[in-house]
Amino acid sequence: xxxxxxxxxxxxxxxxxxxxxxxxxxxxxxxxxxxxxxxxxxxxxxxxxxxxxxxxxxxxxxxxxxxxxxxxxxxxxxxxxxxxxxxxxxxxxxxxxxxxxxxxxxxxxxxxxxxxxxxxxxxxxxxxxxxxxxxxxxxxxxxxxxxxxxxxxxx
Length: 155
Known about the structure:
Elements: H1 2-46, E1 60-62, E2 104-107, E3 114-118, E4 148-151
Antiparallel strand pairs: 1-2, 2-3, 3-4
């Protein structure tokens, strides 16, 4: 009887954790979609991706630097920039390298495209960059554990 209860408790614990992971991952995906929509509205108005300073040589913006971590987007195009539900740290190096559980915006060197990054906890999710059927299969930032991305629309 005790061993049966232990097995049942283990199954319940695994199921609860999987549901928690999927719930947080759903928030992450929705957050990136919201940021993506805001970025597209910005581009429609300004004819380029953020930041406003088009001479900027910064190409990575990570959500661990500040509440307004993606320059020139908040308030006009999105009420508040979201942070990963697991990590709400607002102090960091600013780029996307060596990061876990953050949102990240990477602007291409020619500033014509971007990639938004997050880290999903459900390692069976079909949209992980490692999955051959994922819509976005880009290489994550150096040393990071970010494993899910959304790309800007093709020009």
